Amino acid sequence: MADKKRILSGMRPTGPLHLGNLHGALLNWIQMQDQYDCFYFIADWHALTSDYENTGKITGYVREMMIDWLSAGLSPEKSTLFVQSHIKEHAELFLLLSMITPVPWLERNPTYKDQIVQLSNKDLSTFGFLGYPVLQAADIIMYKANGVPVGIDQVPHVEITREIARRFNYLYGEVFPEPDSILTKTPKILGTDRRKMSKSYNNAIYLGDSPENIRKIVATMITDPQRARKSDPGNPEVCNVFEFHKIYSDMDTQKKINKECRSAQIGCVECKKIMAENLINALAPIREKRAYYMQQPELVEEIINTGSDKARLVAFRTMEEVRAAIKI
Ligand code: TRP
Ligand code: SF4
């Protein structure tokens, strides 16, 4: 354990996980479990930064997110799985870091500027929303993580984390390592409408979707937009359904579809049916484990509590060092 590098990452509990989350993040997290000392947590306080008006669903989402994680293959034996709000030390470190973080660092954060525009239906002119990256920095450096596996959109936050860690070390002495972003290649699967897969676009396929639902959703997927009729040859390279085949269908099927699509021998309806069945099969183990955990709320609760206890121990020690360094 001691010589394994530590990595840490988190997700906001904004709803059940979909295939975009699975392939964009979770599968990488799962793979890293043997190689690294992994800390994975559910960032429920971060969910409040944009959803402070609607808090009723967060607890349910936290539980469901842990179930999705466990079902997909995150292991409480291999990794430390926890919930942010269970570790009050994050709030203390956030406060202390906020004392040394210059506001312009936060105001020029590209994600901040972006979100203010994109979520214009919400009032995000709050202190907490501006301070989002400071809380994230506290999450990361609390565990002295060396690496942070994230999507490209989160890289600016890891960058701010490095700057904050550097500033802390400069002011109070060397306490924190500067974490690196770990960007991994992920397949480019899109939502059913070819936009980024997202809950808010209503274009997602969820880990918990039933086979009937998956069939229905796949049937609505937009294919090669140039292909209007079955008699038109299609181009799998620009077809999102084919991207799914690349993940869920075997090589022979892929080759056959590639050829028959280009020569207009296979229609999109049939092609989608094949894909849907392979997707349903691939998700079967996750679906079964999900059903199991859904019926074991106490077990899930216990996993959350045990993981959070493990994390809290590390956080406790870090905060002792931090207070000593600051002399407070
Ligand atoms: N901001 C991240 C997201 O929206 C979630 C997050 C919170 C996080 N704290 C973190 C990710 C610490 C990595 C490390 O996806
Ligand atoms: Fe896409 Fe399949 Fe239709 Fe070709 S046949 S355009 S790969 S859905």
Topology (elements, then pairings):
Blueprint: E1 6-11, H1 19-32, E2 37-42, H2 44-51, H3 58-72, E3 80-83, H4 89-100, H5 103-107, H6 110-118, H7 127-130, H8 132-142, E4 147-149, H9 155-172, E5 180-182, H10 211-219, H11 240-248, H12 251-262, H13 268-294, H14 297-326
Parallel strand pairs: 1-2, 2-3, 4-5
Helix pairs in contact: 3-13, 4-8, 4-14, 8-9, 10-13, 11-13
Report on the architecture of this protein.
The protein has 328 residues and is mainly α. The chain has helices at residues 19-32, 44-51, 58-72, 89-100, 103-107, 110-118, 127-130, 132-142, 155-172, 211-219, 240-248, 251-262, 268-294, 297-326, and strands at residues 6-11, 37-42, 80-83, 147-149, 180-182. α1 links the parallel β1 (6-11) and β2 (37-42). α4 (89-100) crosses α8 and α10 (211-219) runs antiparallel to α13. It starts with 5 loop residues before the first strand and ends with a helix. The site of tryptophan has 14 residues, from β1 and α8.
In short:
The chain contains 14 helices and five strands.
